[in-house]
Write a structure and sequence with these properties.
mainly beta, four-stranded antiparallel β-sheet
């Protein structure tokens, strides 16, 4: 079994910062792409940022310059540093990973349980 465990959400004032963490554990041979998504009330889930195993990152336009994604391949972990937070960043943030469980396995999609981020004064 593979699971993703997220930590780091909470309540923060506008202009503040939060750092989200996600660690993959279980039967893992290799972790490919890792990403953060978010879903605000009444809206569809959207991608925030993604990062390849080689460290190449892509950001959604609204987060570029404010959010930073990075990963630790040795720990199967991905992080999201969020700065200059705005009320519209309020959402449940989900970790996603494409994981190969064993040699010759096809990459499988896994999701974390989600962590609430609320930006409010």
């Amino acid at each position: 079994q593979v699971q993703l465990d997220e930590t780091g959400g909470g309540l923060v004032q506008p202009g503040g910062s939060l750092r989200l963490s996600c660690v993959a554990s279980g039967s893992i041979f290799r972790v490919n792409r890792m990403a953060w998504y978010r879903q605000a009330p009444g809206k569809e889930r959207e991608v925030v940022a993604s990062i390849t195993a080689g460290g190449r990152s892509i950001y959604a336009a609204a987060m570029k310059g404010r959010f930073t994604i990075d990963r630790n391949n040795a720990e199967n972990a991905v992080y999201l540093q969020m700065d200059s937070l705005k009320p519209e960043d309020t959402a449940v943030y989900y970790c996603h990973a494409q994981i190969v469980r064993y040699l010759f396995d096809e990459p499988q999609d896994y999701w974390g349980q989600g962590t609430q981020v609320t930006v409010s004064s």
